[in-house]
Specification:
- This protein is an alpha+beta fold and about 725 residues long.
- The protein is built from 16 helices and 34 strands.
- The chain has two domains: about 210 residues, Distorted Sandwich (Beta-galactosidase, Chain A, domain 5), CATH 2.70.98.40; about 400 residues, Glycosyltransferase (Alpha/alpha barrel).
- The strands form nine sheets. An eight-stranded antiparallel sheet has the order 7-8-9-10-17-14-13-12, with no helix packed on it.
- The protein is globular and about 85 Å long.
- The N and C termini lie far apart (about 60 Å).
């Protein structure tokens, strides 16, 4: 699939182009046009403020030539004006430089490569339907707004009314003839000359504009998006890798992670990670927790901001429609007027079984990175409420495992990370029936118990620590008794409503390695199955083995390859000492990224590398997507075996990077109260500028599970 670009999801001249900045995004054709009959548009606060944006020159739409994404929020479209006189080549080359923020800015330039002047009528047809993002995604526009259009000087004002809600968009085009349907420029471009026009589209809500004016910067000035990016670049590590292709992938990860950062509206100083473009540019529980945790070595503040924001929205009441329950961490938040379409009738939906234990697990991770003790202490009551949810609501039948079953017929049928309707099935393809206890969810719960136990030991609360340590030990024992399938050599993906093991061979069990839930004697068999030809495609581990009844290499969760899933498997393999296998998966994924401009998509198809010599893209994969963007970060830091534990006074490094990666140099890496510089050449590693009070250790950081066991042996415990 040479030339496939994850920005477009297709070849260089087909598909769509996605721009993203914060929670704002734009989807268009590769010539820059936006058409209402497709899931295109400019979106602001989950509302499509621009549903048509089509450019014609002398009545002709542009023929696309190239698309260059310069930043995640800025793209240059190049095209030409088709001739009407029968000749092939056109002398009129058009460039559209578009930037997305709270609306869009667009600069259109037309260059005349002819020896004769060219008279041009440049027209932009504009429409706004104010549709909710879910209406657009699912192609079911339900609410019809009353729309008015009025020219006001150099601007076209489009206003929408629905019941008592009022929205508006201002389309500004200095020097254009502004009509009710279109904005028109007329230009005579001299031989080898150029014409430039500038436009902006700015949303208004209830008569007020966005928080900051969205205007073209003056010559030599930086746009707010560029300033935001510069601030981000200054605070994150600077990386150099001998393998330039892999270095490009990591730098792309940094860029995408920066573009996916969004502000908590109630606390602008808190930055969280949106799940992914184009349809999930909002706070998600599971996705934001995973992505910010994987990005800890780049910017620990993202994980802290995510925890603080989710803590404020932690469940308080029992609400079957939104699936809110006391102590539960939400699944997603929506900002639009019709946020209720996000499921459950409200702007916040809580139908996630794993976000709650992941919240506690991530707090344990964050506590190792040197934040002020009082900052962590403020979140401990929320962690305890989450643990209480696990007992009272997660494990309703009291069997020791956390299960899910939706509370209303509009909610998600499956509520783990494989949340498609058919995502959990038996080996013969039969769907599992809820309540369902997923194997990886038990691993997350084990991680939550262990993380909270260590934080309790760290604060001298020995009784709580002992209680949680015992819960973790009992869960591990029961899990290995009831989920293990000795005749198959792997763990069941779940237990169904009758407590029958769901016997499909799926990637989920790889997460159990990462959290230390797998018995040592079973780990080699698990790894053998994960690396078998049925599971490992050559580009990564499939979500479902190819010899399972529900396998389909082009399905969302039943045979595709998800980069974040593989990154967690790699971390788990390294935990159990399977270095060669971890290197094999990591290298395959980094090579796959090379076919998509250095950016790993949300997922790609599970076809074998022997069948297709390049990864086959999944048609509707999000890109950029948060946990795919952070996958290269986790892959490399896992192979570096790089970990801090500031309260233990140390940072650890024990690299096993494959030789093909080359030498690694990282500067400006956050560590406690300072910044460190890391150099790795083969097995040799050094760390400079270590903050006072920390010691560099060559070796593996003690696992929290080991620390908890060691703490049990303290005389005072």
């Amino acid at each position: 699939m040479a030339g496939w670009n994850a920005d477009t999801g297709a070849g260089p001249l087909g598909g769509t182009v996605t721009l993203v900045e914060g929670s704002n995004f734009c989807i268009s054709l590769t010539n820059g046009d936006i058409l209402p009959e497709y899931p295109h548009g400019v979106f602001y606060e989950d509302t499509r403020i621009l549903s048509r944006w089509t450019l014609t020159v002398n009545g002709q739409p542009l023929e696309p030539l190239a698309v260059e994404t310069r930043q995640p929020y800025r793209t240059l479209f190049a095209g030409r004006v088709p001739r009407t006189d029968g000749y092939a080549d056109s002398p009129l080359i058009v460039e559209r430089l578009r930037e997305v923020g709270a609306g869009i800015l667009e600069e259109i330039s037309i260059q005349n490569f002819s020896t004769k002047p060219a008279d041009c009528v440049i027209a932009l047809n504009v429409e706004s339907d104010f549709a909710d993002v879910f209406e657009v995604k699912e192609a079911r526009i339900q609410r019809r707004w009353v729309v008015t259009r009025q020219s006001e000087g150099d601007s076209l004002m489009i206003r929408g009314f629905w019941e008592d809600v009022h929205k508006a968009v201002a389309v500004n085009a200095l020097g254009a003839d502004v009509g009710a349907e279109a904005l028109t420029f007329r230009a005579s471009i001299p031989p080898h000359g150029k014409w430039i026009g500038r436009l902006s589209v700015v949303p208004f809500a209830d008569g007020t504009g966005p928080k900051e004016p969205f205007v073209h910067p003056a010559p030599g000035e930086m746009s707010p998006r560029d300033r935001r990016r510069q601030e981000w670049v200054e605070k994150i590590p600077v990386l150099q890798l001998g393998n330039r292709s892999m270095e490009r992938t990591l730098r792309r990860s940094y860029d995408d992670l920066g573009a996916l950062r969004i502000e908590d509206p109630d606390h602008p100083d808190r930055i969280v990670v949106a799940a992914g473009a184009p349809w999930f540019m909002t706070l998600f529980g599971r996705d934001s927790l995973w992505a910010s945790g994987m990005a800890l070595p780049v910017d620990p503040s993202l994980a802290l901001g995510t925890l603080q924001t989710l803590a404020e929205r932690q469940g308080r009441v029992v609400d079957p429609m939104s699936e809110e329950e006391p102590g539960k961490i939400l699944h997603e938040v929506r900002l639009g007027v019709f946020g209720g379409l996000a499921l459950g009738g409200k702007s916040a939906y809580y139908g996630s079984v794993d976000a709650t234990p992941l919240f506690v697990m991530l707090l344990g991770e964050v506590s190792r990175w040197g934040f002020a003790p009082e900052t962590i202490a403020a979140l401990l009551p929320h962690a305890d409420r989450a643990l209480q949810w696990i007992q009272d609501y997660g494990d309703k039948d009291g069997d020791g495992f956390v299960e899910y079953e939706r509370l209303n017929d509009q909610g998600l049928i499956n509520q783990g990370w494989k949340d498609s309707w058919d995502g959990v099935n038996f080996a013969d393809g039969t769907l599992a029936e809820p309540p369902i206890a997923l194997c990886e969810v038990q691993a997350y719960v084990h991680g939550a118990y262990t993380a909270r136990a260590w934080m309790a030991y760290d604060r001298g609360d020995l009784a709580k620590a002992a209680e949680l340590r015992e819960r973790a030990a009992q869960l591990k024992k029961k899990f290995n008794e009831q989920f293990w399938l000795p005749d198959k050599g792997h763990y069941a993906v779940a237990l169904d409503k009758n407590k029958r093991p769901v016997d499909a061979c799926a990637s989920n069990m790889g997460h159990c390695l990462w959290f230390g839930l797998v018995d040592e004697d079973k780990a080699p068999l698990v790894v053998e199955r994960l690396m078998s030809p049925e599971m490992f495609s050559g580009w990564g581990v499939r979500t479902l083995a190819s010899d399972m009844g529900a396998y389909n290499p082009a399905s969302y969760h039943n045979g595709s390859v998800w980069p974040h899933d593989n990154a967690l498997i790699v971390a788990g393999l390294l935990r159990y000492g399977f270095v060669e296998q971890a290197q094999q998966i990591s290298t395959a994924l980094m090579e796959a990224a090379d076919y998509s401009g250095g950016r790993l998509p949300e997922l790609f198809c599970g076809f074998s590398r022997e069948e297709f010599t390049e990864p086959v893209p999944y048609p509707t994969a999000c890109s950029p997507q948060a946990w795919a963007a952070t996958t290269p970060i986790l892959l490399v830091t896992s192979l570096m075996r790089y970990d801090p534990h500031v309260s233990l006074g140390g940072l650890w490094l024990d690299p096993v990077l494959p030789e093909s990666y080359g030498d690694l140099h990282i500067s400006n890496a956050p560590m406690g109260s300072g910044r460190v510089t890391i150099d790795i050449s083969g097995p040799t590693a050094s760390v400079n500028d270590v903050p006072e009070g920390l010691v560099f250790h060559r070796g593996r950081r003690p696992w929290i599970t080991d620390l908890v066991e060691q703490a049990k042996l303290r005389p005072e415990a």
